[in-house]
Amino acid sequence: MSSNCNCICIEEDRMVSYNGSSRAPTVSLSLLLILSVGNSLVASRRSIRPHLLQTRSMSLRTVNGAIASSRKQQLQQLQRIYCQGELLHEVQMQELFTDSKHFVDMPIKAQSSVSNVLTQFQELKASFDTKPKGAEWKAQLETFVERHFDPPGSELVPIAPPDYKEGVVPPKIMKIRDERLRDWAMELHKLWNVLARVPASASSDQTSRTSFLRSLPILSAPDASQNVLARQFNGENVLVVPGGRFRESYYWDSYWIVQGLLVSGLHQTARGVVNHLLEYVAEFGFVPNGGRVYYLTRSQPPMLSDMVRVVSKIEGVNETDNSAWDLQYLQAALPLLEREYEFWMQRGLHGHAIEISSGGETFVLNRYVAHSGMPRPESYREDLYTASVSHINESDYSSLYNEIIAAAESGWDFCSRWFDDFSTLAATRTSQVIPVDLNSILHRMELNVAKFYEVLGNPVASARFQDAAKARVKAMDAILWSEPDGCWKDYILESSMHSSVVSGSDYFPLWSGAFDASNSSRLDRIVTSLKASGLVQEGGIQSTTSITGQQWDAPNAWPPLQDIIIEGLQAADTVSSRALANRLVQTWVKAGLIAWQETCLMFEKYNALQIGGVGDGGEYASQFGFGWSNGVILTVLTKYQEQINLDDLAENARSNDTCHKFPNEG
């Protein structure tokens, strides 16, 4: 960590033990939680370089030193229950709940506290020290948890978004000409009322009793009334959760959720979702994987700059015109985007950026990496099992946990892309992979930030990010481009070779614009490669062609992957790329509509081999709700309706009138 970092670093060593029996794992963990202190982010030398001050920016601050210290202690206390320790180990290993995520999402009851829970647990444990921990221990543990904890997710409550207008058809949805598609879009529009959340209590006491990671508000100086990042609904940002077991906000999911909210005309809610993530950056220096304390060990694909772009751009105006942008919002967001960018560009043993030499040149590209050394609390039992069957020394378990956490940071958890032998989670080596998708997303981030500085009248800062984007494209061509495959490929550091896994990630550079638009023959070759890859199936694009039983492998088709590849093919703008994009639009709409007609549900993932089939595999059952699925369909229906033809599709199997009774939980 840089010595001039204007932040508080909490470093807490933990020593617990595990020998394959009932004891917790033996590893030493240094978990760094980055908390900003009271000084302005603009004054932070680590976050904002002096030349960026040419752009007039809001002075942003989150908390003063006293509050930051209290927050630090609060998070450390919560980690003793939700991230580590004997109580977590016993609850998970006794299998009190089928899903490991269940317990770590349970808030402590109002009449109890962290210290009270831990003290009484030690008393309960002491009463069993001379007894075998069998059925009686499990029963007592169940009673203990029931006495001290509320149901999972109960610290957040459903709410209608403040800008949602009951009975009103949003203008974009009104323009959908096909009645079936328009009715479907309206049903998805109504689901924002099911997926929107706010904290159940405004009390600061609640935050000391829950794993929910409540962000701190960003304050502006000197005039708070001019704070464009201020919370707009009773001092809160309305959050939108994916659905099912995912009871909190998630980083990269939010990009497609925001897109869907904008289609629904819910601009205030969309901006609140983005502001919530910006608050995380202001406090921690990065966006955590999701809104729980146990997600502070990792981030997720950095889509925040694209979210800022879509909520700050005014529709119907050419983006080259300054009037197309909310300049005040960009001024407020840019220091935070810079700060997140520096998080991703940190080098070193546990840094996301890494130098690679090729052809006499040295390039910098990025990877997913973690430095926790512990099982994921929300998948605690699963991670301990994976380590136990990995055939590695117990002393190496912490390294395996780091690789698993890094894979979770990728958003593709789990997938053969990260496996050394392409089949088992125990062989995960994520930090050795230079992923095409991550570098494409960071390329897009560099272009976005360059554009923001351009419209704000800061050509120096804009040029710096343009240069970074150009350098990344050069590095991607040198390291990731595979001439034999006719596309980009993940690069394996250990072997200095391209991955043999065929993945939808291989085509992300089309979406980010990391290609030469004048080289039509190369673009046609990329499209030909995609067609011949085996990824394009009857029900959509499968994540990979590998069959491993993992959820980000074949045959699952994920909504964000469909969106990015469709948008990338449209951006390539050749005859063959547009034709394939149109075909994929048609496929995805039909797949989603058929599944909807049969179930009245939107799913997290689908089966690419069966149009309308539901996805499967991985650590948990397929979830429904579902934030990014709804966002992708709403975007496609309103953006590409000219490419959609339902003539060969049967009439609705059931009326949409029955679909408003969508359940809150999966």
Automatic annotation (TrEMBL):
It is an enzyme of class 3 (hydrolase). The keyword Hydrolase applies. GO terms for molecular function: alpha,alpha-trehalase activity. It catalyses: alpha,alpha-trehalose + H2O = alpha-D-glucose + beta-D-glucose. The keyword Hydrolase applies. Keywords: Glycosidase, Hydrolase. Its EC number is 3.2.1.28. GO terms for biological process: trehalose catabolic process. It holds the Pfam family Trehalase. It comes from the Eukaryota. Belongs to the glycosyl hydrolase 37 family. PANTHER family: TREHALASE. This is Trehalase. It comes from Bremia lactucae.
